[in-house]
Amino acid sequence: MKSQSEMREETTKAKLKYGALGLVFGAVIVIIIGFGWGGWTTTGMTKRMTKEAVLATQAAICVAQFMKEPNHVEKLKEFEKLNGWEKVDFIEKGGWAKMPGGEKADLYACRACADGLELLIKK
Q1: How far apart are CA 34 and CA 32, in angstroms?
Q2: What is the DSSP string of 20-84?
Q3: By CB distance 3.0 to 4.6 Å, which of 7, 28, 64, 114 could disulfide with 87?
Q4: Residues 80-99, mean pLDDT to the nearest whole number
């Protein structure tokens, strides 16, 4: 027959064992829920999302600057006749994708601006 101290020791070991397992499984469940449905993101994902948001903003600014030109209708017709990279070069040379305070236009911003202008033409 086991003594009372041996029984308490076994009970304590069992509590620790199941407590640790509960802690581990609980942490795994929280991580799954957090990343799956809770909106948690990794640093890499956050950086990518930030770059995409900045690029979208730059494209919108570029399109707005293009449309502010007094002769934007003629420029839009000229833009429509160009192909692929010619459109990007056209935007870069026009200076519409150059952001305030920047020295020159970003190539990706020029491409995004060209995409925005193409959508504008289709309307």
Answers
A1: 6
A2: HHHHHHHHHHHHHHHHHTS----HHHHHHHHHHHHHHHHHHHHHHHHHHSTTHHHHHHHHHH--H
A3: 114
A4: 92
One-letter identity of residue 74: E
Contacts of 70 (CB under 8 A, 6+ apart): none
CA 100 to the chain's CA centroid: 22
How many C-beta atoms lie closer than 10 Å to residue 111's C-beta?
19
Contact 101, 91 (CB under 8 A): no
Distance of alpha carbon 96 from alpha carbon 71, whole angstroms: 13
How far apart (Å, rounded) are the C-alpha atoms in residues 33 and 56?
30
37 has pLDDT over 90 = no
User: 54: pLDDT confidence band, cut at 50, 70 and 90?
Assistant: very high
Q: Which amino acid is at 105?
A: A
